[in-house]
Amino acid sequence: MNRASRFMMRQWAGLGARFLPFADAATPDLPLSRLLRLSLFQVAVGMALTLLIGTLNRVMIVELGVPASLVGAMIALPLLFAPFRAVIGYKSDHHRSELGWRRVPFIYRGAMLQFGGLAILPFALLVLARLGDSASAPAWVGQAAAALAFLLVGAGLHTVQTVGLALATDLAAPESRPKVVGLMYVMLLVGMIASALLFGAMLAEFTPGRLVQVIQASALLTVVLIGVAAWKQEPRRSTARVPQPVPPDFRTAFSSFLAGDRALNFLLVTGIGTMAFTMEDVLLEPYGGQVLGLAVGETTKLTATLAIGGIAGFGLASRVLARGYDPLRLACIGVVLGIPAFAAVILAQPLDSILLFALGTAAIGAGAGLFGHGTLTATMNRAPRDQIGLALGAWGASQATAAGLGVALGGIIRDIVATTSNHAATGYHVVYGLEIVLLLVTLASAAPLLAAESRDAARSHAGRNQRGSPGGSGIIQEGSAL
Description:
Layout: H1 3-19, H2 32-38, H3 40-63, H4 68-76, H5 85-94, H6 104-129, H7 139-171, H8 177-202, H9 208-230, H10 250-259, H11 263-278, H12 284-290, H13 296-322, H14 327-351, H15 354-382, H16 388-421, H17 424-468, H18 473-481
Helix pairs in contact: 3-4, 3-7, 3-8, 3-9, 5-7, 5-16, 6-7, 6-9, 7-16, 8-13, 8-15, 11-15, 11-16, 11-17, 12-13, 13-15, 14-15, 14-17, 15-16, 16-17, 17-18
């Protein structure tokens, strides 16, 4: 490499460290290039989520003519695997491979499950829609095949995300974990936004053949992204046949996890807060179009606004947590930010203010980013070394299940209230008001945890002062113990 090339490489590296988000998450043991490569599994997960929840939701109902109730049931199927994330994380904690890996085998299994579901999905949809020669096939064939495809994709993405985050926790130094968490979830949002734009452009002129090509390309890209992400990431451990302690069974390990460090209360806070921030996910765009009179192009920008707010929340959380701020308190700040954000969305209709609606949407994204980052970082910090996968799986199960229930309940409540009141805005306002109530419940549920952490910190501080004081009883006790 000549002198000019070396100079350009140094300048590029310095530019990345100064301006790239989360570039300072890198360490000598985990450089930025390796960290970005690891985060590609989140891009694959984001692509699958966009395909299932966004693109196929519209295509199945509008272009393929599948009943909306059946579409809703199919999209909800991946949530059946969300509670099993704790089991997946536990298995990856104690897995022994002849190749010396714990996490990587589960990541590759999840990739193949996701690939298998996406590979059969387009043909299942064609049979489900009874297009072409498939019209002569029994209806149950298309329904069963589509259900299997959605289940496989759901199982794959839950496995990949749970074990991928556990691997990131293993590799990251404790002081850099908040920034690593932020980078991982920003890459998830990047994957969702980029894939939404690509899918929209490729399906602008819809044909069944084009749909098959798009989903098959997604299946292939899934394997490539996850394979590149996991390649040479996990250090190989010794495979020598030495006696190993028998790990506890899952029930015992999970009971021990729940009994320690107020984990059950923490998971409850995570679930309620997540539901509060997700009930409006499928309602913001219809609210903007039906109530505020926005055009389709304008309401589509709301998704980007929400994502930009989320990225801002993740970025702020990473910087604050890296300086030692308590992650649970930061999550509560996100909850507090969400309360006026939802109030702004409600007031946008009587005040006829599009700006207030946009600001409220961005603030919802920022509050959700702070809350999600804070609870995940708290989970990583609180987890014992031998229960990292289990802890992250439990957090993911609580978060994913609550998010799915929140989206479903938001739509149901909106429809019921709008039908009974004969006023479209009322249904949306009731849901947003309920989300404010849930945010207040989240704060009330988090208050005992914050009080307990304050007491623990005070005891720890008093203990250090006692041990450090000249002639103090702490020194006498330590000397006698020695």
